[in-house]
Amino acid sequence: MGVRAIMKKYNLAYEDRDIINDPVQRQEMIEKSGQMLSPCVEINGHMLADVSGDEVEAFMLANNLITENDLQPDAPTNQPCAHEMQPQDSPIRFR
Residue ranges of the alpha helices (H) in 1-95? Predict the structure, then answer.
């Protein structure tokens, strides 16, 4: 959601591909990125693999592809997906 939030913040068109349910799309992502983690974002032929929204925004700012704005993204841009997050009241236990 973080990458999508950055794209919306800057009103940028993007193509969202389903790498979970479409093996052809998943294989293309693996071939282009060299790894299996997502999200991956390809910008002008440059692949950003396993990237956060903050990293996408930083790349685009550094390469003068966007101009910084004061709009707030509509989702967190630098955290894992909700199903990957640990509940605050449940500490991680190592054995």
Answer: 2-9, 23-33, 53-62
d(CA 13, CA 16): 10
Residue 42 identity: E
Of the candidates 50, 21, 19, 56, the residue with the CA atom closest to the CA atom of residue 37:
50
The domains of the chain, with CATH numbers, are 2-84 (3.40.30.10)
How many angstroms separate the CA atoms of 23 and 28, rounded?
9
Q: Give the predicted TM-score (pTM) of the model.
A: 0.78
pLDDT tens, 20-63? 999 999 999 999 999 999 899 999 999 999 999 999 999 999 99
In angstroms and rounded to an integer, the radius of gyration of the C-alpha atoms of the chain is: 15
CA 68 from chain center: how many Å? Answer: 18
Sign of CA dihedral 7, 14, 42, 26: positive
